[in-house]
Amino acid sequence: MVGTAEGMSNNGYLNGATNGTTEEKVDELRRLFGKADGDPLRIVGVGAGAWGSVFAAMLQDAYGNLREKVQIRIWRRAGKAVDRATAEHLFEVINSREDILRRLIRRCAYLKYVEGRLGDRTLYADEILKDGFCLNMIDTPLCPMKVVTNLQEAVWDADIVINGLPSTETHVVFEEIRRYWKERLTVPVIISLAKGIEAELEPEPRIITPTQMINRATGVPAENILYLGGPNIASEIYNKEYANARICGAETWRKPLARFLRQPHFIVWDNGDLVTHEVMGGLKNVYAIGAGMVAALTNESATSKSVYFAHCTSEMIFITHLLAEEPEKLAGPLLADTYVTLLKGRNAWYGQKLAKGDLSLDMGDSIKGKGMIQGVSAVKAFYELLSESRLNLLNPNENKHVAPVELCPILKTLHKILILRELSCEAILQALRDETMNDPRERIEMAQSHAFYRPTLLGQ
């Protein structure tokens, strides 16, 4: 087993404070893992979407010079071809940045981008990632990283694994990883970045989160699995826009990891309420899709967007009262994450493109240049879960018991648009204009004044 943080002094750190040099933070983490001299701390990112790639690149930027003490690499599947249009755009990005151009010429890598642009060769996602280009974020060059396309090679001896996979792929990939960890004598630490959920209806209706999927798939103890999330746009974080996040999980690991991950422009706090924060990260994606639709259909009307925001936040508050015993503690993080996702997130972008007709539902929820649109599967999961009659509660306005989803008209409409495909995007406006729609204040008051908390929804 790896070492623990028990018995160590906190060295005067405040909730993720940056006290100490880069090397001191590495040395602290190495002590926790019981690392001997000459044995580097091995960190591997699994999945190379925008946030997964940026997260690994930030660690490489911060700690990559300490090669004898820490080794950072990232895994992505091999063989994904870069199309001609993307190759041409990538070439334009390279030539617009003198530092990137010089770097590629110095590494004798520039010629392959010339050939890719001319169509004389095919570029692949894993090879451009080695040069610092994430396929979902071409306009934001990253630092070069060690890229591994063999999953066993990537993870078999990893001390820290960063889950950058979509929630829909997490269980399958980590089931494969389990095979490679059968002979391990030590237990790794896993940090999940995934924002998505699944619904499980038997034996009791409940939400399954990525950290729970990882625990089931690998057998790694829950105290060694953490979630990191916050109101973050990947490209802006890599460009050192000020941002913050929370790492949630057991105190043994979350506090030293908060210190390790924290940088002057990326403030990491820690919190013990892992699953609820993780679920909230998935919930805001649901309503972000609807926000994008409203923005597109009303020509960015501030009034219409504010009406939608009032209704969607009241539904989110209602749902948090079902999920959390102390939902008021989630209000700030949930609203902040929702705000940034509505402003610039991929789920809001997806809703806009659907409403404008630039995308269709038949194209699926994995979109070129954006990656997985997590909100689509989250709509399905939350709808299925909250439709369960076993969760029925009293609607005081009608004095009858109803499934929770009946009190969430925006969620119901999004399900009809995205999953059942019974309605067009315009239905989201019709739902807002429905004269029978209750004042969102009433939904919030209802949630606050009745015992709606259902601990079984989070397996508690």
UniProtKB/TrEMBL annotation:
Its EC number is 1.1.1.8. Residues 1-20 are annotated as: Disordered. It catalyses: sn-glycerol 3-phosphate + NAD(+) = dihydroxyacetone phosphate + NADH + H(+). Residues 273-418 form the Glycerol-3-phosphate dehydrogenase NAD-dependent C-terminal domain. Coiled coil: none annotated. Keywords: NAD, Oxidoreductase. Residues 7-20 have a biased composition (Polar residues). Residues 145-245 form the Glycerol-3-phosphate dehydrogenase NAD-dependent N-terminal domain. Belongs to the NAD-dependent glycerol-3-phosphate dehydrogenase family. This is Glycerol-3-phosphate dehydrogenase [NAD(+)]. It comes from Coffea arabica.
